[in-house]
Design a protein that fits this description.
The complex is a heterodimer of chains A (256) and B (394).
Chain A lengths: L12 E7 L5 H14 L3 E5 L10 H12 L4 H12 L6 E4 L2 H7 L1 H10 L4 E3 L12 H6 L3 E2 L1 E3 L7 H6 L5 E4 L15 H9 L6 E4 L5 H8 L4 E4 L1 H10 L3 H16 L1
Parallel strand pairs in A: 1-2, 1-9, 2-3, 3-4, 4-5, 6-7, 7-8, 8-9
Chain B lengths: L4 E2 L2 E5 L2 H17 L3 H14 L6 E3 L1 H7 L3 E6 L9 H14 L4 E6 L3 H13 L2 E7 H6 L1 H9 L3 E5 L6 H14 L4 E3 L10 H9 L1 H14 L5 E5 L4 H7 L9 E9 L10 H4 L1 E5 L1 E6 L24 H8 L3 E7 H15 L5 H13 L8 E6 L7 H7 L7
Parallel strand pairs in B: 4-14, 5-6, 5-8, 6-7, 9-10, 9-14, 10-13
Antiparallel strand pairs in B: 1-2, 2-12, 3-4, 11-12
Helix pairs in contact in B: 2-4, 4-5, 4-9, 5-7, 9-11, 10-11, 14-15
Classes of the chains: A alpha/beta (256), B alpha/beta (394).
């Protein structure tokens, strides 16, 4: 069992995402520390990728900004290790498969462990393909987070039974980004997941207002917010940490 | 390991949101590919609408000029819409209609696949939206208007490098947002399984015909078949029925752009390394951290940082060979074919013509080789004029 479970003990977890190295590594670390101070129970750090196919424009642009500022897999490990030295909050990486594959599965997950990473989310690695990577993750004690989509249907039981850490329920079709309306099938999806596993479920994609967060937290164990935070990073650059802190306080209060 | 593997390559590296749709596509394809009615309808479309079979043309003047083997051109440029793309598109759009889809989306580089998709959508009564890199919409403005004439909506893609790979990204994003009524007509032998197999099967009509035609004309197999490779669909179609004929060399021509010793190329096998992108494991142009590299070619259709997984496997196994051809060589071949044979071919296909010119002297005079002329060059005339520094008023 990893640190991830701590995020869900006796509370609804607020999970915040930020693209690592955006706008630069130093500010990125300040943002993460302020997110924790503001009430984040788990931090997702995105490893920037040239072609983030599951992301909407806000996070796509953050990826490009971080790459332009020189972020690499190694510098994200350094960032994570530096955060880990200051906090016990669980840290999860979000990355596309190619940077992991190219780094080498063994070295990558050894790097995760050294940097205090607890889990990993890989949007382009479905259940059918995870076998090539999972043994390396397991060896280093890194949870491979399961994603469940509105279209998962009869796949849900199989996906959920295998889950570790937490289950990431994708609230809506399409890519990341803020939305005013979330999928109608969300309640059914959550019920189907809950029927087969005790692993906590967190809902992400599209959530940005305290009202949405409060609504979803009635049935979910946690909520995930990404684009709304990354948008503040884009808007305020090096001044972003304080804006993000206040935003997170407000969101965390809504689900507490 | 999952389905759809070619050696270690291939697979299904896509978001969970698309998995059920991909599984449904595979099930439907497995059913319809063996369905006599589907096959009859598709053959009718190919023959009565697209103009198949395409000619296998003996290029006598080119043969005489090069002084080597007898040179044949497989004339995919003569198909309706002007390229091999229609073979795959008619198959996929018909399949999509059988699956109850009412809308098709597609990426396009040079615009040939977009035009073919818009055409098939018009014919079969489907809504159609095409994603095309903004840079490509400018390079190939005529094709954009052509697609609009056919009733398609064209979205210029402004993300990333604004070329083919970004068009694929954007089409995948669109598909993830709307799968219930929409089929993604992938244009090459790439992407997640079952696309590399579906597209190869629909394109294999090229070598099925060519093999019979060359036996009829020459009474012997070709010493080599030569085709250009971006994602690799015309090459896969040209190679497929010759794969068991070990004596036939299979040669794929990648875009070397300004040279493989520069960073301005799209030579995936020559310069790339193994990776996972756009749903498949294969070779990609990428940096030391697995970031997909910006690629370049004068040809928008070859300007792609990856290659289909079956090509990656044919390379690994040594069954096919892959070479790189520069912009300069391709433009020279484009002009050469126009003047020697009176055929203006696509700048993509000119990469294959260029390589055939280079190697012809190494073959016996009584042997023959086939070049796949994947498309016609009307779309490239303005770009070639620009390349040559000629000002024309369209």
């Amino acid at each position: 069992m990893s640190r991830i479970k701590d995020a869900f003990i006796n509370q609804k977890a607020f999970i915040g995402f930020v693209t690592g190295g955006d706008p630069d590594l130093k500010t990125s670390e300040e943002i993460i520390l302020k997110m924790i101070a503001g009430g984040c129970d788990l931090i997702e750090i995105g490893i920037p990728f040239s072609d983030p196919v599951a992301e909407g424009p806000v996070i796509q642009e953050a990826n490009l900004r971080a790459l332009a500022a020189g972020a690499t897999v190694d510098s994200i490990f350094t960032l994570a290790a530096s955060v880990r030295a200051k906090t016990a909050v669980p840290l999860v990486l979000l990355t596309y498969l190619n940077p992991v594959y190219h780094y080498g599965y063994q070295d990558f997950f050894a790097g995760c462990r050294r940097s205090g990473i607890d889990g990993i989310i890989i949007p382009d690695l479905p259940y059918e393909e995870k076998g090539e990577l999972q043994p390396y993750a397991a060896l280093q004690g890194i949870d491979l987070i399961t994603l469940i989509a509105p279209t998962s249907g009869q796949r849900i039981a199989r996906l959920a039974e295998d889950a570790a850490g937490f289950i990431y329920i994708v609230s809506s079709m399409g890519v990341t980004g803020t939305r005013t309306q979330l999928s109608d099938s969300l309640t059914d999806t959550m019920a189907a997941v809950k029927a087969v596993t005790d692993v906590p479920v967190a809902v992400g994609f599209g959530i940005h207002t305290p009202e949405q967060a409060a609504g979803i937290a009635k049935s979910a164990d946690g909520i995930i917010v990404g684009s709304a935070i990354v948008r503040l990073a884009a808007q305020y650059g090096q001044e972003a940490p304080d804006y993000i802190y206040h935003y997170i306080k407000q969101m965390k209060a809504a689900i507490s | 390991m999952s389905k759809g593997r070619f050696g270690d390559h291939g697979g299904q590296y896509i978001p969970e949101t698309l998995m059920n749709e991909i599984i449904k596509l595979e099930e439907n394809y497995e059913f319809y590919k063996n369905d006599p009615n589907f096959n009859r309808e598709l053959t009718d479309l190919l023959n009565q609408y697209a103009g198949r079979p395409s000619l296998l043309y003996y290029a006598e003047r080119m043969t005489r000029d090069l002084g080597g083997p007898r040179i044949y051109l497989k004339r995919e440029d003569l198909n309706h819409t002007g390229s091999h793309k229609i073979n795959n598109v008619l198959g996929q759009v018909l399949l999509a209609a059988k699956m109850g889809k009412t809308r098709v989306i597609a990426e396009t580089g040079a615009g040939q696949h977009g035009v073919a998709t818009a055409t098939a959508a018009a014919l079969l009564g489907m809504e159609c939206e095409i994603f095309m890199g903004k840079e490509d919409t400018e390079r190939q403005a005529l094709n954009v208007y052509r697609m609009e004439l056919l009733g398609a909506k064209v979205h210029p893609v402004t993300s990333g490098t604004q070329t083919l790979k970004d068009a694929v990204n954007e089409t995948m994003r669109e598909w993830t947002a709307r799968v219930h009524d929409t089929h993604y007509v992938l244009g090459s032998v790439m992407g997640p399984h079952p696309f590399p197999t579906i597209v190869r099967d629909f394109q294999s009509v090229i070598s099925k015909e060519a093999r019979a035609q060359i036996m009829e004309a020459e009474g012997r197999l070709p010493a080599a078949v030569v085709a250009c490779v971006g994602g690799g669909s015309n090459a896969m179609g040209m190679f497929y029925h010759f794969i068991p004929d070990k004596e036939v060399r299979l040669i794929g021509c990648e875009a070397a752009g300004q040279g493989t010793d520069t960073d301005r190329h799209a030579a995936t096998i020559t310069k790339g390394s193994p990776g996972v992108f756009h749903g498949m494991k294969s070779y990609f142009c990428q940096d030391e951290y697995g970031q997909i590299a910006p690629v370049y070619s004068i040809s928008a259709g070859l300007d792609y940082p990856g290659i289909g997984p079956e090509h990656a496997y044919l390379h690994d196994s040594g069954r096919a060979e892959y070479v790189a051809v520069t912009d300069e060589e391709a433009v020279a071949a484009f002009e050469y074919l126009a003047r020697t044979e009176g055929i203006i071919c696509a700048i993509e296909s000119a990469h294959a013509v260029a390589h055939a010119r280079k190697i012809a002297a190494g073959f016996d005079r009584d042997s023959n080789i086939i070049i796949c002329l994947s498309g016609r060059g009307d779309k490239d005339v303005a770009a070639i004029a620009r390349y040559k520094g000629v000002t024309i008023h369209e």
